[in-house]
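Take a careful look at the sequence and tokenised backbone pasted below. I need to know what the token row says about the fold.
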Amino acid sequence: MRDDPRRRDLAAYPFRIEMVPRFGDMDLNRHLNNVAVARFYEEGRVRFHFDLHRRPGLERFRGFIAHLAIDYLAEGHWPDPVEIGVGVVHIGGSSYRLGLAMIQRGACIGLCDSVLVHRDEHGNAPLPPLLREALESLRLRAE
């Protein structure tokens, strides 16, 4: 993920939010600590899904994290705001992968991949057509 230049470009992400780090998000070196960084990605992922759940017919779909990977590319600093971009990078049969970027001061300081598995009351389930269509509309944009 770190070698794809479009992953570092906030404009490539169809969903974006801005967050302000708190003083407690710093480590002893005055950088954003790894727990805070993971929370920023979590907030971006949750808000992406909250927005997705607002679409008619998607209010009740359930996705669960199967894999999460974070690449730290540069140090983040308090108190500068961070922007989180979220986009779909892969759609499978019962799962999909979100790509997230963290931007601060105009530079990409980190990337995250989250694989989510769709589940119904019986366990893992194929992605419903309506969900698949919504995910397609939220793909990471090409260069």
DSSP finds two helices and six strands in the chain. Helices lie at 34-53, 129-136.
